Every structure is written in structure tokens, then in C-alpha cells.
């Protein structure tokens, strides 16, 4: 298992623990190129996360576009081990403000 896929699996498990009433989806990378890896559905709100091995890891075409566009609509972010705590905090704040 690569470092990114291991981090992604750990993150999905953690998201299930944080949001047991939510739905956590791993998106199909082959369906829409550049679309974020994880979707979180909670109450009437949603968020997407694009996992990266490192915060400075290269980004595939369209990833920045989707993160910016989807963040305008709800919440979207790049997440890596380096910024994990900050992004999860921001995500919790975003969900709280919308409940």
C-alpha cells in the first residue's frame, strides 16, 4: 500500500469515527479526472477532500479547479498528514456553522 493510499484509508476510518451519522464515500478516480478522493455527506451538507501524500505533492490536472469550485459551494480542501489537524478542524467548523 502506498503512503497516500494508507493515509487515505486511515483518514476514511477516522472520518467514520468523527461523523458516525454521516456517509463517507471514496470516489472513483477513473470516473471524473481530478475530482476529489473523498465525499462526506452529513445532514444537509457535504464536503470533499483530496488526499495527498505530502502537502507539496504534485496535483493532477483539474484538482485545483475542483477544490476551488467545490469550496465555493460547500467545503473542499487538499489534505495530507502535514495539514490533517488543521483541515479536520476547518471541516468541523464548516459543518457546525451549517447545522
Structure description:
- There is one protein chain.
- Helix content is 42%, strand content 20%.
- The protein has 99 residues and is an alpha+beta fold.
- The protein has one domain (3-98): Trna Endonuclease, Chain: A, domain 1 (3-Layer(aba) Sandwich), CATH 3.40.1350.
- A four-stranded mixed sheet has the order 1-2-3-4.
- A hairpin with a 2-residue loop joins β2 and β3 (45-51).
- It is globular.
Secondary structure layout:
Blueprint (H helix, E strand, L loop, with lengths): L2 H16 L4 E4 L11 E5 L2 E7 L11 H11 L2 E4 L4 H15 L1
Parallel strand pairs: 3-4
Antiparallel strand pairs: 1-2, 2-3
From the helix content, strand content and strand pairing, which structural class follows?
alpha+beta
- The figure for the number of domains is 1
Helical proportion, percent range: 40-55%
Alpha carbon gyration radius: 13 Å
- The CATH class, by name, is Alpha Beta
Strand content: 15-25%
Number of helices: 3
Characteristic terms for this protein:
about 20% strand; single chain; alpha+beta; Trna Endonuclease, Chain: A, domain 1; globular; four-stranded mixed β-sheet; about 100 residues
Summary, kept brief:
With 99 residues, the chain is an alpha+beta fold. The protein has 3 helices and 4 strands; from the N terminus they run αβββαβα.
